[in-house]
Amino acid sequence: MTPHTRLLDLLAQRSATRGSFTLASGRQSDLYIDARLTTMHPEGLSLIGPLGLATLRERGWTADSVGGLTLGADPVSYAIAYASQLAGTPIRAFTVRKEAKTHGTGKLVEGAFLPTDRVVVIEDVITTGGSALKAVAALRAAGATVVGVLAVVDREEGGREALEAAGLAVAALARASEIVARM
Q1: For the domain that residue 166 is a member of, what is the CATH number?
Q2: Domain containing 125: what range?
């Protein structure tokens, strides 16, 4: 079994649920994908890091750091950063707060981020693309150059197209249709 196939199986077994749900976007859906149940699991992390790093390389996305809106992007970013260190090509990780701190340095972007970085924005699940666009805006305001958006799951509900329409390259490790096929 390939790492990609195993990731799809984990997402289908751990993260996908049928029912009636309101998504973060406000949309209604009969499919909920809580990718955190996979991205925060040891096996999921061990698959996502190398798969994410390989996707960056395949796309030709040269990044200094990876990260996105907390909380969904955090474990994925850390897994990729760890895999990059093991591969001898370190890529730092950061997180984008939903709101700037009102104390201390008041940062919106936290972690091993520099304003001159070329970054890949990380998402756990793309539905409308809104969370990724929020992270992109914060990173650009902080001085970063965004080279692409990498998601664990593309729900295939227009988010990829919205991000591409905003001039962003997008890649996903899995599509909702691939996960549903394994449920």
Answers
A1: 3.40.50.2020
A2: 48-175
